[in-house]
Write a structure and sequence with these properties.
heterotrimer; A alpha/beta; B mainly alpha; C mainly alpha; A: six-stranded mixed beta sheet; 10 strands; B: mainly alpha; 73% helix
Chain lengths: 247, 297, 330
């Protein structure tokens, strides 16, 4: 078991956004967190990545408690996160975007006297190849399309060499072709790099096309959890998704 | 023992006077910082210009009985107008992003202090000027063994009047409600269909007006000279930060703290009093940047 | 788009031309110009180093410090006090100045980097003003307002030419080191923190730690500039560390361009040249520099170097279009 939450709770004033959630994520899983709007997915995600601190409850990663750790420590432990709105460096080139992340991962960030242009170049290109952005290497991040930005962010989080990847709506804003491409990329990366992935999604075709395990949230509580077929058949899930296409 | 009581009381009143002058100047700075998120480096300059302009009017109206009071009001109006011009021509162009806009505002307002310094030198030369206390308050009052100039008592009184006036404006009028809302969220106010651009301009005018008013009122307390903008600016920063940005009661508290610390500090540690105030400013910024009563930073 | 190799060399040359010119002039200054310019250039070099160290935090890390002159003053006073109170030679007083500045900057910086924007600016200003007041009021130690004068320097610095090259070499080395740091992986991380602190934090970087390191590095160079200043000026007064002096590197950087490594240097050249020229005719320098600052802030956000880059780009574009249209003829 790679990641585990115990009775994780977070409130904003009187609104209980995340209510005593217990989730287990196994190594190698592609674990989806789904639920209607307002279910608490984003809050839960932010608790996992360290952006928010829970009011109560614990998070364990590889048996170590990481509940109170700041985001940079969580990243150093092997958990990397991508954001719903791709968080990249708009003024730096695509190449520099990924290279900057690699500097941190490979312990070069306190290197004061070497020339940045010459370091970790091959490794950066390798990642750019993986996310198919090599031909756009010199373009400033800010000039990329939305879909490309998400690809770039995927490249950045891969550069963090994580064991666990947290993807917040990885296909948000993408066209159907881009979505399929990203799904294939994620599955390939997971296989090639032995990753575990937790992701949230609204697009059910993505969820059922990728997930090996699904947790369903509703109004802050966990109402279903298990293999895709089991969740798909679950009555409670049907009720809360009344009107939504479950592919 | 009696001497000690007198001394303390004298210092207290003196500190209170200084506090009220600081409050008058800093209240404008606090409003501008709170509502527009602009740190107006030129605020001390507006205060200084208020004093010089007041002197000019007073000079012309010397034979008029209430000449001084008219000069003060006129000076405040002139400076308010200057604030209007500054906001419209310069500050308005900088309401873009967060960091970039702030840097521009800081540099622009600092540039204004440089320009104003030379304007003052050009128009009034490098001399010192002074305005005597107005006749009504030219005497002194005694209490607890201390002879205290009645004009200073007036300044203290006036400061509290302005405080209550501002409080009424902010908490009992619709405009004040809008201004307080804008401190919290500019976007919400704009979304409600209120012309936020003009609210900003209005607040800047009010802030400048207050600074000019302070310059006029404080003029008889000391000399009018070119460096007075620098010395009051950093104390104003201290007042605003300690009291809490955008909160008029906070600014009053901050002014009281800074003024009284200064007054009693010079009894105890005369050389390091001003350093002590910077230290308090630094500590507040480190421990609780929102100050005593400010909005959570 | 294929640029012929001669064109590539031309654009490279044009890009670096102003810098090359400046370096050549600097190297041969004593042969070309009078003593007055030797002195002026000495001050320009010192101011340029101060501005460039400031810009490590401002242009490259995104935090505007309004207290940089404080560290300049600490470095300057350390050398002054050592030189007038002890027999310790220059060789050791300069490193001592750097170390003292570094220690003080580490303590102050620890608190400052936890704030950003205006609060960072005011906090740095408050600490710097605190340092100023201490130096100003501690008459017994620093001679307060009188300053320290007639500071003894080694005899080899008696000639102004020798003094000039002394400054040039030391400051040149300092700038080279600063260059290395700016374009190292550490320097890249600074830019990352500037452009997207959240992403950088989520890449495993503890923001306050790296910002503190940058803060201290900037202060070290400022202290070094102060040390050179004392040796050059042979006197120090508290006025060099008042908060209004902290505005000078800001102005120079903004005029020169904050996003270019040599922007602050260009800004320092323009600022001090203009200042000495104008002060020759009138005392009303503040209004002139104030007006220039307003114009630059509103219309030239990337400073003179930014403008130059834009012009170069436009020329390159026009040349490319011309080449394209010529190729199309065939």
């Amino acid at each position: 078991m790679l990641l585990q939450t115990q009775a994780l709770t977070k409130s904003f004033g009187r609104l209980i956004a995340v209510n005593e959630i217990d989730i287990e994520v196994q190594k190698g899983d592609l674990h989806a967190i789904i639920g209607p709007n307002g279910a608490g997915k984003s809050t839960f995600f932010n608790l996992l990545s360290g952006l928010l601190k829970p009011d109560s409850g614990k998070i364990f990663y590889r048996k170590e408690e990481i509940t109170k750790l700041p985001p940079h420590r969580i990243c150093q432990m092997g958990i990397s996160k991508s954001f719903q709105v791709a968080s990249i460096y708009p003024l730096l080139s695509v190449f520099e975007n990924v290279q900057g992340a690699l500097f941190s991962t490979k312990g070069k960030s306190l290197s004061f006297f070497s020339s940045a242009k010459k370091i970790l170049v091959k490794e950066t290109y390798r990642i750019l190849e993986n996310v198919e952005l090599v031909d756009k290497a010199d373009i400033p991040g800010g000039e990329l399309s939305q879909g490309d930005r998400k690809q770039l962010e995927l490249g950045i989080v891969l550069a963090n060499e994580p064991e666990l990847l947290l993807l917040d709506e990885p296909t948000a804003g993408m066209s159907p072709e881009e979505t399929t491409g990203t799904m294939e990329l994620i599955k390939r990366m997971r296989n090639e790099r032995d990753l575990t992935i937790i992701f949230t999604e609204h697009d059910m075709s993505v969820v059922f096309g990728m997930a090996t395990r699904i947790s369903v949230l509703h109004q802050g509580s966990l109402i279903a959890d298990g293999e895709p077929e089991k969740v798909r058949a679950d009555e409670k899930v049907h009720k809360i998704y009344l009107g939504e296409e479950a592919n | 023992m009696e001497d000690l009581v007198s001394l303390i009381f004298a210092q207290f009143l003196s500190g209170l006077t200084r506090s009220m002058v600081l409050f008058l100047v800093a209240s404008g700075l606090s409003l501008i910082f709170g509502v527009l998120s602009v740190l107006n480096f030129a605020h001390g300059t507006l205060y200084m210009l208020g004093a010089f302009v007041c002197f000019q009017f007073w000079n012309a109206l010397m034979n008029v009985g209430v000449g001084f009071w008219i000069s003060v009001i006129l000076a405040a109006i002139v400076i308010g107008l200057l604030g209007f011009i500054i906001e419209i021509t310069l500050i308005r162009r900088t309401y873009t992003g967060l960091q970039l806009g702030h840097t521009q505002q800081l540099l622009l307002t600092y540039a204004l202090t440089l320009i104003a310094m030379d304007v003052v030198r050009l128009v009034w030369g490098g001399r010192f000027y002074s305005i005597p206390r107005p006749d009504i308050f030219s005497g002194s009052v005694s209490a607890l063994g201390v002879q205290f100039p009645s004009y200073q008592l007036f300044v203290i009184f006036f400061g509290f009047i302005i405080y209550f006036g501002l409080w009424l404006l902010l908490f009992r009028t619709k405009l004040g409600c809008i201004i307080r809302a804008a401190v919290f969220s500019r976007d919400m106010v704009a979304a409600l269909g209120i012309p936020i651009k003009w609210i900003y301009t209005l607040v800047f005018i009010i802030g400048a007006f207050l600074a000019g008013l302070a310059g006029g009122i404080a003029a008889p307390l000391g000399t009018i000279s070119v460096g007075m903008d620098h010395s009051i600016l950093i104390e104003c920063f201290a007042v605003v930060i300690i009291g809490g940005v955008g909160n008029v009661t906070g600014t009053l508290l901050g002014a009281l703290i800074v003024g009284l610390v200064h007054a009693f500090g010079i009894l105890v540690l005369p050389q390091l009093t001003i350093a002590f105030i910077f230290l308090i400013l630094a500590i507040v910024l480190i421990v609780r940047p929102s100050g005593l009563l400010g909005v959570e930073v | 788009m294929m640029l012929s190799s001669s064109n590539r060399w031309t654009t490279l040359l044009l890009d670096k031309l102003p810098l090359i010119l400046l370096i050549l002039i600097a190297l041969f200054l004593p042969l070309l110009f009078s003593e007055y310019y030797l002195l002026l250039t000495g001050y320009i070099l010192i101011a340029a180093l101060l501005a460039q160290s400031f810009n490590l935090m401002f242009g490259f890390m995104g935090k505007l410090s309004f207290g940089h002159a404080g560290y300049f003053g600490i470095g300057a006073y350390t050398v002054a006090l050592i030189a007038t109170n002890t027999k310790i030679p220059l060789l050791f007083s300069i490193p001592a100045a750097i170390i003292v500045t570094g220690i003080i900057a580490t303590i102050i910086g620890f608190f400052c980097v936890r704030r950003s924007g205006y609060y960072f600016a005011i906090l740095t200003m408050a600490f710097s003003q605190l340092l100023f007041v201490i130096v100003y009021k501690w008459y017994g130690f620093t001679h307060g307002d009188d300053g320290i004068h007639a500071i003894p320097v080694p005899t080899f610095l008696d000639s102004s030419v020798a003094q000039y090259y002394f400054n040039l070499v030391l400051i040149g080395i300092a700038m080279a080191i600063l260059w290395k740091i700016t374009f190292s992986p550490f320097g890249y991380i600074l830019r990352c923190m500037r452009d997207n602190p959240v992403r950088t934090e989520f890449n495993g970087i503890k923001l306050t730690r790296y910002q503190l390191i940058a803060f201290v590095i900037a202060a070290l160079f400022a202290g070094f500039a102060g040390a050179i200043f004392t040796i050059f000026n042979r006197a120090v007064t508290p006025g060099i560390m008042d908060w209004t002096r902290s505005a000078d590197p800001v102005i120079m950087t903004v005029i020169g361009g904050q996003f270019s490594f040599f922007g602050p240097l260009i800004g320092a050249v323009i600022f001090l040249f203009l200042q000495s020229y104008i002060l020759g005719y009138t005392i009303f320098w503040p209004i002139i520099i104030g007006s220039i600052l307003v114009i630059v802030v509103l219309f030239l956000p990337e400073g003179v170097t930014g403008l130059y880059q834009k012009i170069l780009k436009a020329i390159k574009q026009k040349h490319q279009d011309k080449t394209k249209s010529e190729l199309n003829k065939y």
